[in-house]
Amino acid sequence: MYDKIARFYDLTHANLTADIPFILQLAADSDGSVLELGCGSGRLLLPLAQAGFQVTGVDSSAGMLARAKARLVEVETAVQQRVTLVEADMTSLTMPSENRFGLILIPYNTFMHLDTVQALLALRQARSYLAENGRLFIDLPNPLDIASISDDQLLSLENVLTDPESGELIVHLVSNQLDSANQTLHITWIYDVSQPSGGAINRTVAQAIYHYRYPHQIELLLQESGFKLAHLLGNYDQSLYNEESERLLILAT
What we know:
By secondary structure, the protein is of the alpha/beta class. Helix content is 28%, strand content 32%.
């Protein structure tokens, strides 16, 4: 799915930077290198490497990894040498057995792409690569916010963007279908692209199923995977999670 929308990802997430200082501090407080599961186009991976950390980025989308590689080409060689990119599914990741990481990240909303079976597989894989005294970090939205999303399935305007490289106008639309019984959110993203000179509109449609979980459900998944829940935070300011929190941030050991 992300191969279809890789070119739009950085544009639609350009303002997503609030988590970066928090992630950098997590890495600084951890002993060893960083493994990012679902690294995408390198939004977090690059600032981690620029801050001096050895980072392995894993993603199943060749299109997103291509954008990460393009970003790396633009930085100094020393930063490039701190990064390893792996095209793989996090549920079946295979790396040398001696690879151990002080911090493993499943970044912004990525864990929501996994159903229960996939989530357990991914967590068990992560546990096998965690160093002694290492930590796992999962970044999710507050599930109460997801559960309260309007189920009208109407298209709404997400944003209107201009591609700085091509000058194309991109109209980004979204539609949500909530299945509260199965705790899933079915999302349709539409990207309508038009040339600066006008003419026909080129439409790209992508769909995803997000699985949202409550804290007690995540804790059970962690326990079944060999982790122990350490902290539940509600935002990048390290405030504790509550019903009004913007995010659900999980730290486990």
